[in-house]
Specification:
The chain is an alpha/beta fold. The protein is built from 20 helices and twelve strands. The model has no long low-confidence stretch (mean pLDDT about 85).
Length: about 475
């Protein structure tokens, strides 16, 4: 939420606003014109959205240009909410409202009884305030306990107790939707709303007004209604009433990143890291996530969220910080040995098919090994690691593990030109980065069955 003060030159009364030449526009017109202006100027209207450039975004842009209410359909962790939260960037940065208005009405068009009365009494001296676009986006997570009062409104007993009669429309306490007048209302997981609550949205979407407990009050609302839903629930056989489904003009299917580079970009953008995590570890996590989405052992109806890979990167980073704190390393750098913590910590974020009970860890470890092997082939292909294999075969085992510092690991390694080649290929400069690069090469040799790998009783790993 932006709390900045609006520019001083903006009008402070409705008379000044008219004199400035301000033109009132509906929310959908405002967003359409700002979107078209951004497209003409080559400005990205969707900052931070990765992987949807050729699929979802063109469809969404056409829906907004057409003035449609929009529902995004997709499994968990596909960026639906992130995309919805960028929509307010298409609104004007500042918009005029009647000062003190509960619903943020436009000074040219008051709609509540109290604002109509004030406008008639004050005329051109009606005070004007300015609302930032971030304040014009309202979001609600649909839950079974959501009520009509939450979304639309209800009678306020406090106002009745003050002496107003029950028939007085000013006794109404407005809900989320009318309070988003001249803005955007986003409802996450729309089918989770009870059917009677879904019915309350019909008037909002079709007639653009609300009805509260039989009041004759009619409020012509100006809102863009957007929602997210799981495709399985958003069907005539699911948990959505057909009339509401029919009122959304655009139904857009989201998806997980189709390209490995996009998957990596999401991790780098979203992960909150406290250690240096080499780029190839992001690649391992991205490949791991994609293998989980392809696995027949994983329940693909629930999907594997992009948050899994993001949480994986944060876990690997935390493991590196933990090691540096315990062992007194100056710099925390993640290594392939830290990838094992992802399986231990995040297995609860993946839902497996019922027949795989008891095999969850085995499946995760197998797919992580595949992801690591694929990354080694992609990153170190063309480098002849035979000299490293020969050195290890002739009595130079390498000891690593969560309790082994980067300096100690480098001291275990033989002096070989091939390790310099590996470090150069992976962009490793510091001791921590060189140790991580060497560990990736060792793990690749183990997965190719060219050397062995054995844990010891101290929790260390010995490549021999």
């Amino acid at each position: 939420m932006v709390t900045a003060t609006p520019p001083a030159h903006l009008a402070r009364t409705v008379g000044d606003l008219r004199a400035s030449g301000h033109i009132q526009r509906s929310v959908k017109d405002e967003m359409r014109e700002n979107l078209l202006a951004a497209l003409r100027d080559g400005v990205d209207p969707w900052p931070g959205i990765v992987g949807f450039e050729e699929t979802v975004l063109p469809q969404l842009e056409r829906g907004l240009i057409a003035g449609h209410d929009v529902v995004l359909l997709g499994e968990r962790g596909q960026g639906k909410t992130r995309l919805l939260r960028t929509l307010h960037l298409l609104l004007d940065e500042w918009t005029p409202v009647i000062a003190g208005s509960e619903l943020g009405e436009h000074p040219y068009e008051p709609i509540t009884p109290i604002s109509l009365r004030r406008a008639a009494e004050l005329g051109d001296t009606l005070p004007v305030a300015w609302r930032h676009r971030s304040e014009r986006y309202a979001e609600k997570l649909a839950t079974p306990d959501t009520s009509v009062a939450d979304l639309v409104g209800d009678v306020d007993p406090v106002k009745v107790a003050e002496g107003r009669s029950l028939g007085d429309p000013e006794t109404i306490h407005f809900g989320l939707v009318p309070r988003a007048h001249r803005g955007i209302v986003a409802i996450n997981e729309l089918p989770d709303l009870a059917e009677r609550i879904q019915v309350s949205l019909l008037n909002v979407m079709e007639e653009r007004d609300i009805q509260v407990r039989g009041y004759t009050l009619r409020l012509p609302l100006d809102v863009l209604l957007v929602a997210s839903a799981n495709p399985e629930d958003y069907t005539n056989r699911g948990r959505i009433i057909t009339p509401l489904k029919d009122r959304f003009g655009a139904e857009i299917h989201t998806h997980y990143p189709s390209l490995l580079g996009d998957e990596i970009a999401v991790i780098e953008q979203e992960a909150n890291l406290h250690a240096v995590v080499p780029h190839y570890l992001f690649e391992v996590l991205a490949r791991f996530t994609r293998l989980l989405r392809e696995s027949t052992s994983v329940d693909q109806r629930s999907g594997v969220s992009a948050r899994f890979a993001v949480a994986g990167a944060e876990t690997v980073s935390a493991a590196a910080v933990h090691r540096s704190a315990v062992l007194g390393e100056a710099d925390a750098v993640a290594r392939p040995i830290d990838l094992g913590t992802v399986v231990e910590v995040l297995r609860g974020k993946v839902e497996f098919e019922s027949g795989e009970e008891g095999r969850e860890l085995e499946i995760l470890e197998h797919l992580l090994r595949r992801a690591t092997a694929d990354t080694v082939r992609a990153r170190l292909g063309g480098i002849d690691l035979a000299p490293l294999v020969n050195a290890i075969e002739h009595g130079q085992p390498v000891v690593t593990g969560e309790r082994v510092t980067a300096k100690a690991l480098l001291g275990e390694l033989p002096e070989l030109e091939v390790l310099d080649q590996v470090a150069d290929r992976l962009g490793a400069g510091t001791d921590g980065e060189r140790a991580s690069a060497a560990e990736l090469a060792l793990e690749g040799l183990y997965l190719a069955r060219r050397i062995s790998k054995n844990p010891d009783e101290n929790g260390q790993t010995i490549y021999s």
